[in-house]
Each structure stands twice: as C-alpha cells, then as structure tokens.
Amino acid sequence: MLLLSPGSSFMAEKSHSPGEKQGAGDVSPASISRTDFQKVGLISCAALVAANMIGTGVFTSLGFQVAALPSAFLIMLLWALGGVIAFCGALCYAELAAALPRSGGEYNFLGRCFHPAIGFMAGFVSVAIGFSAPIALASIASGRYMAAAFPGLNPILASVTVVLALTVLHSLTVKASGTLQVIVTCLKVGMIILFISVGFLAGNKAGAIFTPTSQDVPLFFSHSFAVALMFVLYSYTGWNAAAYIISEVRSPQRTLPAALLISTSFVALLYVGMNMVFLRAAPMETYVGKIAVAEIAARNIFGDVGGRVMAGIIGAGLISTLSAMTWAGPRVAQTVGKDFRALRWLSHTTAGGVPRRSLFLQTGLVLIFLLSSTYEVVLIYAQFALATCAFLTVAGVIVLRIREPHLPRPFRCWGYPVTPIVFLLLTGFTMLYSLIEKPWEAGAGALTLLLGLGLYFIASRPGLKTNP
Asked: Residues of 95-118 as b/e, b for ≥16 C-beta within 10 angstroms?
C-alpha cells in the first residue's frame, strides 16, 4: 500500500493560481489533438494506480487478523472485499477530481461539497497524521524486516535512519524523487510476484482450509471482522490516487474506469495470493501479534537463510512506500498554507520546487509516532480518521449531484448511486465497530478530527485567510 491519504498524489501535484480555472473539462478540441499524445493510456494509468496501493499492509496485517478470525476463508474474503471497496471509492474520487480540479484532495472536495471547515479538517488530518502516521508504520515494518534479515540490528534505529535519509533525498529536487520512486516500485512488485510463485510451488505445509464452514457465519458478523477489515482498508489505501491523474489520462471517460478495474483487480489478486501463501506456509497461531509475517512464512518455505534473505528484500522493498509518502505528503500542507496566512510558511518552496518546510514538519511528526506508539495503536488511530474523511468525500459525490446537477463532470462515476452507497455502507460498518472494539484508538482519531475543526475557526479569522 502506498498510502496516499487525504489530499495526496503519487505525482507531484500542479497547483494553480487562485484565479486559474483549469481542469480536464477546460481543454479545447484544438488543443486536445496537439496534446493528447502526451497523456497516459490504459496500461500506464492502471500501473500507476496499482503502484500507489501496494505497500506496507499486506506484509504486516495478518498477525492482527488471525487471532480473532481463525479462518482462512474469512481472511481471503477480507482481502477480496477490500478490493471492492477500493474500486468503488476510486470511481467516486475520480468524479470529484474531474468536477473540482484543484490541488488539495479532500481539503478541496469537502470544502466545496459541505463547508470550508470540513475541508480544513480533512487538510489538517492529512498534514497531522495522513502521511506521518503511515510513514511511521511503514518504517516500523521496514525496521522489523531488516532486523530479521540482520540479527543484532536495532529495528528502531534502522527505521529512524531510513526516514531521515529519505527526507534528505526528497528535500533536493522533484526529479530526484521521481527517479527513486520508479526504481523501488518496480523492485517491490517483482519481489511480491516472485514470493507468491515460489510459495505456491512449496505446497500447503500448514494444511490451511480455504472453504467456508459453519463457524465462519458468526465470525463474519462479529466486531472482530469489522476491525480486521480496517487493517485491510489501510492496506488498500492509495486508490484515491486516481483522483489526481484524470487530467493526465487519454480519453478519461473510457480509460479511467477500465484502468481502475484492472489495477484494483491486480492488487486484490496479489493481496489474496500473498495471504494465501502465508496461511499455507505456517500455522495461523505462529502469526498472532507478529508484524514481520512474511519473514515467518519465508523461513518455513526457504529455511532460515532463505527467510533472512527474503526479509531483507521485503525490508528494502518497503522503502518504495516510505519514499512515495515522503514525496507526496508535504504537497497537502503546501496547499493549505496558500489559503491561510497563519500557515503561509508551509507553502514556501525551494528553487527546485520542494516544499521543504512542510517536509521537515512531516518528518518531525513521523519521529513522534515512531518513537512513542505501537504499530497497532497507530494504525487504528490513523485509519479511523482517514476513513472518516474518505466516507465524507464519497458522500460528497451524492451531495454535489443533488445540489449542483449542472456542474460540468468530464468523468461520471460508474454505477451511481450504487457505487457510493456500497462504499459508504462497508466503510461505515468498519468505522462503527472500530469505535466499539477499539474505543481509545478510534476515539483519538475522532478527537483529531474535532481538533481540525477547532483550528479552522482560529485560522479563518479576518485577516488570516486568503481567497483560494
């Protein structure tokens, strides 16, 4: 999962000036013929969205799922269901991005669909935890895998070192960020495919049963299933990247839905395949409470030496996730800073186009999460706040359709209104039961949302807000 949480993009965003109205729907027919060849087609678009989703969660989530859900069938169902939710959400975001073409993601969408205070709240969540918490999670996972590969290595020290090194690299130029991202993403996808292929050839050593049983029915409707689904949704986060590439896509009305279907299906297959290999490689109880689940599976498949090698490869591969979030995150703070004088310092960029102050702020928050909390606590806390923003954004598709039916929409969500309703029901289900099952972590996420609302009324006082 490349976590591109509220307001982010795999690519550096293009911010327009306050008076500029520019978007996919504003291109003249004459200019289309001259520039269309420069845009991406179906395969490139699908590859970009898939690269945004594949990340930390698939290598870490199983250990937090099997304790309460000791069913291989339900684990597989969780990951397939996550793909459905991601596809529905991406289609909804794509419509809003086409209709409201301005940088900022949920900060822009929710401000227009509901109220500027709601948009600011989402922007605050992005700046405060939307990237910093997931970067901390990815760095924790990377450190654990590197420590498994190199016994004696301090995992926290490894995590901090990687975070600081990437901060330095991404503080240089945007071009350096792009080159690094392409390399590490290709290595990561290749590693996953290799691991799945070898894992299936190794056979079902744990004797896992993937057919449903009568015991699965009550588990499916339990609180535990909803909380486990929250981990899966975290793993799929990144589907919202589709909202930021529509102006770069050739024939978006046809290409984007097809690319979304291909990319989410591809990622879902990888995730289902990966977890099936995990469950076939070792008994479920060996994974309970563990973060480096792929290392456990690799040791059972390849032996100790092979397991250490695979752990090292996975730890290095997670740098792709860290790099992408380190790159994209500061652009949200930069956009918020342009709209509020009190936060103008966040909008400053270097000659190379890097919002360095926002980047350093993000790194400071990452280190706080990294050194003060456990993996599970940070994940539930951050995901609840992010899921709330995504829930409101998808609801905004319905609100905007009703309130502004004549607004130009170069792309319209497939299957409306079923698509947003499916997303809202399933996401709302996980949020409700997360509050019941994990009240402290989810409650902290809710308090962060309320803090963002309060800060809006301070930052928007006369003389402190500019006109976006």
From this structure: bbbbbbbbbbbbbbbbbbbbebbb
Angle of helix 293-317 relative to helix 252-281, nearest 10 degrees, comes to 130
Other CB atoms closer than 10 Å to residue 143's CB: what's the count? Answer: 26
pLDDT 10s digits, 339-360: 777 667 766 776 666 777 888 8
User: What spatial distance separates the first Cα and last Cα of the chain, rounded to whole Å?
Assistant: 31
**Structural tokens at position 418:** 């079923």
C-alpha closest to that of 373 among 446, 453, 444: 444
**Helices 293-317, 319-328: inter-axial angle, 10-degree rounding:** 50
The set of residues, in sequence order, having a beta carbon less than 8 Å from that of 454 and lying 6+ positions away, is none
Tokens 């993403």 sit at which residue? 185
291 dihedral zone (left: phi>0; alpha: psi -120 to 50; beta): alpha
Tokens (6 digits) for 57: 């969660």
Q: What span, in angstroms and rounded, lies between the C-alpha atoms of 141 and 373?
A: 13
Q: Rounded to an integer, what distance in angstroms lies between the CA atom of residue 144 and that of residue 289?
A: 13
DSSP string spanning 113-171?
Answer: HT-HHHHHHHHHHIIIIITHHHHHHHHHHHHHHHHHHSTT--HHHHHHHHHHHHHHHHT
| H or E element at residue 95 | helix 72-99
CA dihedral 255, 256, 260, 266 (to 10 degrees): 30
DSSP conformation class of 340: B
For residue 101, the 8-state DSSP code is: -
Query: pTM for this structure?
Result: 0.78
Calculate the CA 111 to chain-centre distance: 21
What digits encode the pLDDT tens for the residues 150-165? 888 899 999 999 899 8
Domains and CATH numbers, the chain: 38-459 (1.20.1740.10)
Strands (DSSP E) found in 179-287: none
